[in-house]
Each structure stands twice: as C-alpha cells, then as structure tokens.
C-alpha cells in the first residue's frame, strides 16, 4: 500500500522545519552557544539530581572559561583572605588571649579598647576614658589591687599617659603605685630564701624598683629635665635592691634576691645610675657603680663577649680619666703626685685595652650602637691620655683612627646616637697634637677660600656694596655664634672688609667683637691679600702677630 500524498506532505514539512531550526542554531554566536548549553545542563529542571560537587565544578569551569584573568585574581584574593584570617586567629589565640586571660571579660574588653585608642587609632580622650572605666570595673570585680593583672593595668595606664606626652602625670601615677606597693611590702623574714619563695612579696618589691627606674628615666628626659630628682629616685630603687640582696658587701649583687631581679635587670638599673653620675660630673660615684655593674652583666652574658660589656669597660676608663681631671682629685685617697698620675694613666690604658679586646672579636654583623659607642670612647679617651702623657705620636694615631671611623659612619648615623659633635671635637684635638702640619693645611684652605672669593668678584656700585656688606656680616655673625664653621664665618667677615669704605675702623670693631678662632683666620686672610692689607693702618703688625701666635702655640704644644 503506497503512502498517501498527505503523509508525504506532512513529512516534508517536518523536514523543512528541522532544517530551519538547525540553521537558526548555526547563526547563534559562539558566546551565546557557550552560555546556553551549561545553563540548560545545570538548571534543566527544579528536580535536578546533579550533585553539588558537580555543580561547583561546572561553575568553576564556566568562570575559568569566561573570565580567566578575573578568575585568577579572585582565586588569589580568596587565598590571601583565608591566610589573613588564619593568621589573625592564630595571633588572637596564642598571643593576645593569654595577655588578657587573667582579667574578667568586662575588664578585658575595656582594656582592649583602651589599647586600641592608644596605639592603633590614637585618641587621647577615648583612651583615657577607657582606661578609667577598666580600672573602675577591676575594682568592682574585686580584683587583687596588688596582683599581677591589676598592677599591669596601672602600668599600662601610665604608659598611655607617657605616649600622649603627659609625662608629669605618668610619673605621678608610677610614684603612687610604687608607694602603695612599698607600704604593703611585708617585713623581711631575715632569710633571703624565705623572702624569695614569697611570690606576692617579690612581685611588689620588683614593681617598686622598676617603677622608680622608669620614673628616673622620665625625670631625666627632655620633658622634665630634672637630673637631681632622677638620681634621688634611682638611688632609692638601688637602695631597696641592695637591701633585698644576699650579703651584697662580699658577694655583690646577684639574681639571688628578694626582688626577683635577674642579672640582666640588675645590670640595667646599675648602668642607668652610673650614666646619671657620669653626666653630672660625679665620676667617683659613677666609677664605683660601674664596677658593681660588671659582675652581673658578665653573669647575664654567660661570660661571652658582648657589645654591652665592651661599652661598659670603655666607660670605666672614661670615668677614671674624668675623675683624674678634677681640680682636687685624689688617687687611692691621697693627693695626686706625678708618680700616681702616671700609674693612673697606665691603669686607664689597661681598661681601654680590655675594652678593645672585648669589642674587636665581635663580628661586624653583630655590632650595635653600644659597640660603636664603646669604640669611639676607647680612641677618644686613649688620645686624651696620650696627650697628657706627652706622647703626641700615639695621640695623633688614636685621633686619626677615631676620625676615620666617624667619617665612615657618617653624620646622620652619629646624630641618631647623639654623637654628631665628635667629628669636630676630634679634628680640634688633631690640630692640637699636630700643630705644624695643621697650620700648613689651614694656610692652604685659607688661600683657596680667598682665591675663590676673588674669582667670584665683589660689587662695585655703592648700593650693591652696602647690601652685600650687610648680608656678609649677618651671615658671619650667625656662623660665628654657632661655632660650627669658623672658616666660612671668617670668609664672610673678610668679604665685608673688601667692600667697606673704611676697612681700618671696621678692623678695629672686628678686634673687639669677632671670636678669637675666627679672628685668627681673618688675620691670615689679610696677610695673603696684599691689596686689602695696605688699606689698614696697622697692617705691618699683622705678620708679627701671626708669627708670635704660631710660636706660642708651638711652644704650648711641645
């Protein structure tokens, strides 16, 4: 039986429709096709049973295919965020939480906020308010006022005041804390061993010593600048430390004490005291305190060479030399004689040699500011001692070595450790130890300066000369007042003479107003400038004055 025409017609129409649909799909863009297929695959129906892992894999593949750069950035960002979260969690759990573990939750939260407004987002008023609230809550929770957490809270409060520049208030708070602890310290049992076993007592004694030590630092600082009060406060701390030590007269100060102070902490307090004595010229007291510091410092370092020990040894030699220079100095309780002074010089050189033997073996990678300061003080003191001994060759060698080290380090580094004056001071001592060579160098420098000024030329118009004169004199007075560059100051005064209408009267003014060191250089400039020398009435005396000045200096140097 043959199909009817109707069946053939229906089949033909279906074939055409299919062909039309395939043509439409071919005309779709690749982007549309790529997006359409996965969409149909994943969201084919609400009852899809595709596993979640497959869906995530499909999403990832689609994102990687559609936006490869953005996908990589997103991946890196996600990894960084997870790493940061892990780090913060680790720090919070292992570092931050133990610091606040002894506080009640309310006090802990308030203390965290106080520290946040002190260091993270500084806000003085907010920090002060949060600290007050933390102390108030601690009192309401009946925390032990002399327990370690409460004492730590009060010390942090003083640190906050210091951070915001309220140094006087910080000292007052530390003083109140020290006094309260001192009043509550139980009387000594008479046995260091029993006192050392009393943790509460040890903590309170140590708090008093540490508070007074820090109070002394604040008294000495740039805000209060009360050295006498600093020495008084620190002396009280050391007196308490000695009182709590076991037989300090024969055994010295050790870590076996009722203050729970380690060798390192004892050495730090004693070194602070000796530095205060040395800064105020009490070299005998400074020397005794440094000798006491040596044993605990070496014990803290386990006998190994350190920069701190080298610095301490150089300071001992420096204080010995300072004590020797005092007007009524005594040596071993007796007035000094030539023989005792010579013996003292040898002793100082011995301590300097010990300092060198301690510092030099330390690798340069391990050097710090104390190694540098110790080295500077060694050569500085050594040069001074050799000058007093009349050995100018060794003095010159010591100061030359020091000058090379200072210039190698540079002015900025010296300024950071408060020793930026050492280069100029060392150069001055080199002139003293080698006057003839220095005089020749000075002549050459002056000659070069005068030649440079002459080549630059001087104004000729009256108005320009007057303006130029006032500028040079003002600049010269400024430099002479600072004392940092006598050569440039003298050059300014010389230029003023060159343009002034009556140099003779100006020269007379110079003789009574210009500092001696600057005036000496101006005289040499006049000697080298024949044209200007002829304009001054007493110019014939300049050569004689210069020769007499040099002869006097050479005799004094010898």
TrEMBL record:
Its main location: mitochondrion. The chain crosses the membrane at residues 69-90. Keywords: Membrane, Mitochondrion, Mitochondrion outer membrane, Receptor, Transmembrane, Transmembrane helix. It is found in: Mitochondrion outer membrane. It is a single-pass membrane protein. One of its GO terms (biological process) is intracellular protein transport. GO terms for molecular function: misfolded protein binding. InterPro entries: MAS20 (IPR002056), Mrg3-like (IPR040201), Tom20_dom_sf (IPR023392), TPR-like_helical_dom_sf (IPR011990). SUPFAM superfamilies: Mitochondrial import receptor subunit Tom20. One of its GO terms (cellular component) is i-AAA complex. It comes from the Eukaryota. Belongs to the Tom20 family. This is Mitochondrial import receptor subunit tom20. The lineage of its organism: Eukaryota, Fungi, Dikarya, Ascomycota, Pezizomycotina.
